């Protein structure tokens, strides 16, 4: 996570992005 933190992200941001991406691919979830 060091690299992501240097880019200005934290785990919550990454998790939110992943969740949003999953929602787009699996709208029934």
In the predicted model, the low-confidence regions spanning at least 5 consecutive residues are none
Task: Estimate the mean pLDDT confidence.
Answer: 76
Overall morphology: rod-shaped
How many domains? The number is 1
Number of continuous helical runs: 2
Work out the strand percent.
Answer: under 5%
Following the backbone from N to C, one meets helices and strands in this order, namely HH
Secondary structure category: mainly alpha
Helix content: 55-70%
Radius of gyration: 11 Å
Sheet with the most strands, sense and barrel status: none
**How far is the N terminus from the C terminus?**
27 Å
Number of strands: 0
Tell me what you see in this structure.
The protein is an all-alpha fold. The protein has one domain (1-29). Helices cover 69% and strands 0% of the residues. The chain has 2 helices and no strands. The model has no long low-confidence stretch (mean pLDDT 76).
